[in-house]
Automatic annotation (TrEMBL):
<feature type="transmembrane region" description="Helical">
    <location>
        <begin position="392"/>
        <end position="411"/>
    </location>
</feature>
<feature type="transmembrane region" description="Helical">
    <location>
        <begin position="327"/>
        <end position="349"/>
    </location>
</feature>
<feature type="transmembrane region" description="Helical">
    <location>
        <begin position="139"/>
        <end position="161"/>
    </location>
</feature>
<feature type="transmembrane region" description="Helical">
    <location>
        <begin position="453"/>
        <end position="477"/>
    </location>
</feature>
<feature type="domain" description="Major facilitator superfamily (MFS) profile">
    <location>
        <begin position="103"/>
        <end position="509"/>
    </location>
</feature>
<feature type="transmembrane region" description="Helical">
    <location>
        <begin position="417"/>
        <end position="441"/>
    </location>
</feature>
<keyword id="KW-0472">Membrane</keyword>
<protein>
    <recommendedName>
        <fullName>Major facilitator superfamily (MFS) profile domain-containing protein</fullName>
    </recommendedName>
</protein>
<dbReference type="Pfam" id="PF07690">
    <property type="entry name" value="MFS_1"/>
</dbReference>
<feature type="region of interest" description="Disordered">
    <location>
        <begin position="1"/>
        <end position="34"/>
    </location>
</feature>
<dbReference type="InterPro" id="IPR036259">
    <property type="entry name" value="MFS_trans_sf"/>
</dbReference>
<keyword id="KW-0812">Transmembrane</keyword>
<dbReference type="InterPro" id="IPR020846">
    <property type="entry name" value="MFS_dom"/>
</dbReference>
<dbReference type="InterPro" id="IPR011701">
    <property type="entry name" value="MFS"/>
</dbReference>
<feature type="transmembrane region" description="Helical">
    <location>
        <begin position="361"/>
        <end position="380"/>
    </location>
</feature>
<comment type="similarity">
    <text>Belongs to the major facilitator superfamily. Monocarboxylate porter (TC 2.A.1.13) family.</text>
</comment>
<dbReference type="InterPro" id="IPR050327">
    <property type="entry name" value="Proton-linked_MCT"/>
</dbReference>
Length: 517
């Protein structure tokens, strides 16, 4: 966190839960360091403005954009802050260990769980291509697309309820149920013959992914601080690209050798083993507890009735965070950038086939995409610890947009260009799934991260639900012209996503570019 007149600002990661008493908004240089420590302990999630010497509070328990002093309260259009219920850490002074046996054990467990979940999500194109050309060869593309759009919708949308459960109860129960469902779903898909059978099977897989994705990503924030979170989160989510690389290669070998059924059974067994590792190693460090805190006045909180306490503890759906402008802009940016990624991963193989490429070469293109995505998730995450999380994310999205405009849209018919775009696009867009939680952690209380991440994934799921079928309608009969229109759709999504990511950054630091954030 910056002091003096420096323009460098880095948001504090929050280790407390809400403001228990007002702090002086106006400060001198000598008092900044002392108050910075108070900010971390009390849950103020943003930096001091070094020019105005004022606090900027992070999202309050109701998600309202923060305020600093009485004058800023008025500016924010808030007359007062009433007594309200917030969440706190079991030990608000406890800092993440940033290493040690337990922390790295959790990292290993998270890695194998993400390998399963994001690996399957990144491999959906390889499964859809085979199913549409064999088991469901006589079914139109739009009907087939609903199988995998529903799957992707559930894989993200279930996070709406699992995020809050993870914050309150921990990850173990969610991971156990997820393991049962993923095995049942893949084994069921292995013997499916009709559209509705595939839908039911992949619904189970999607719910499984949704149950375990949020805790496997969110638990990293419990054990590692802002100094390491970029590299650590990038490393853990790179497992998704590794799975997206290994699973299609495995399926490509097993399909002709042993058949579709055996291929999915083998895949199910691998996922089962990876999930068992996650169950054994992933542990939360803190849990969310309810606590009444007073307002900025001296009003004493009223005691909740027993029924209200039970109702509060059982609540798993919450949209209160949508009052935070920074958070909403981040959601919109992630929505369109993620939709661009999902559409490419789903249809890039069939796009290549439409250009005259063989089926085996199309699988290789997906392999190249996921291979470069491994570096695209880890290296930007590492760099974000030095240059800023939002800065790195926007920079990589700009690189992705350039590769679309320069390579894919004008020259997508050329095989060499398809390889080049797969390499560059996979690298630049590989960061999306890893940088979203990293950036989100910068504007979120750690005890609310699961809930906010789950709500974000719910909105992403809507894009998956409707985006894939819309793309299928545009592709239609699979002509070269229709796939050209499809590439333009992907291009539009990526541009809109980049714009809103920038607006999210702008809502925090304004137009200043030389700011680490």
């Amino acid at each position: 966190m910056s002091t003096g007149n420096s323009d460098e600002i880095e948001l504090s990661r929050v280790r407390g839960a809400g403001i228990s008493e007002p702090l002086d908004a106006t400060m001198n240089d000598d008092s900044i360091d002392e108050n910075n420590d108070i900010m971390v302990r009390t849950g103020i999630s943003e930096a001091i403005d070094p020019k105005k010497r004022t606090f900027t509070f992070g999202p309050d328990p109701d998600g309202v954009d923060g305020v600093n002093d009485a004058e800023n309260v008025k500016t924010a259009g808030m007359a007062d802050i009433a007594a309200e219920t917030t969440e706190r850490l079991e030990d608000s002074d406890d800092k993440p260990p940033d290493g040690g046996f337990k922390a790295y054990s959790v990292l290993v467990g998270s890695y194998f769980t993400i390998l399963t979940n994001l690996g399957l999500i990144n491999s959906v194109g390889a499964i859809q291509t085979y199913v549409s050309e064999h088991q469901l060869a006589g079914i139109n593309a739009i009907s087939v697309s609903w199988i995998f759009s529903i799957y992707l919708c559930l894989a993200y949308g279930v996070g709406l309820v699992t995020g809050s459960i993870f914050d309150k109860k921990g990850p173990t129960g969610l991971l156990i149920v997820s393991t049962v469902l993923i095995v049942a779903g893949l084994f069921g898909a292995a013997y499916s013959k009709t559209v509705y059978q595939f839908i039911l099977s992949f619904m189970a897989v999607g719910i499984s992914n949704g149950l375990s994705l949020t805790p496997s990503v969110g638990v990293i924030n419990h054990w590692f601080s802002n100094k390491k979170i970029g590299a650590i989160q990038g490393l853990s989510t790179s497992a998704g690209s590794l799975g997206g690389l290994a699973f299609p290669l495995l399926l490509r070998y097993l399909y002709p050798t042993y058949g579709f059924s055996i291929a999915l059974i083998v895949l199910g067994c691998i996922c089962f083993g990876c999930m068992l590792i996650g169950i054994a190693l992933i542990r939360e460090r803190v849990k969310r507890q309810s606590q009444e805190v007073t307002s900025l006045s001296n009003a004493r909180p009223e005691t909740l009735s027993k029924w209200k306490k039970v109702k509060k503890e059982s609540k798993v759906l919450s949209f209160k965070h949508l009052k935070d402008t920074k958070y909403v802009l981040l959601i919109v940016g992630a929505f369109f950038a993620e939709l661009s990624l999902v559409l490419i991963v789903t249809y890039y193989a069939t796009y290549a086939i439409a250009q005259g490429v063989s089926e085996s070469t199309a699988y290789i293109l997906l392999t190249v995409w996921n291979a470069t995505g491994i570096l695209g998730r880890f290296l930007p995450g590492l760099g974000s610890d030095f240059f800023g999380k939002f800065n790195m994310n926007i920079l990589m999205l700009l690189g992705y947009n350039i590769s679309i405009f320069v390579l894919w849209v004008p020259f997508g018919y050329n095989l060499k260009v398809l390889y080049a775009f797969a390499a560059l696009g996979g690298f630049f867009l590989g960061l999306i799934l890893s940088m979203v939680p990293i950036c989100l952690s910068q504007i979120s209380l750690v005890v609310e991260f699961g809930e906010r991440y789950g709500l974000l994934n719910f909105f992403l799921s809507l894009g998956n639900l409707f985006g894939v079928p819309i793309a299928a309608v545009i592709i239609g009969n699979g002509s070269v012209h229709n796939y050209k229109m499809f590439s333009i759709l992907v291009c539009v999504c990526s541009v809109i996503g980049t714009l809103f990511w920038y607006l999210s950054r702008h809502s925090i630091v304004g137009f200043r570019l030389n700011v680490k954030i």
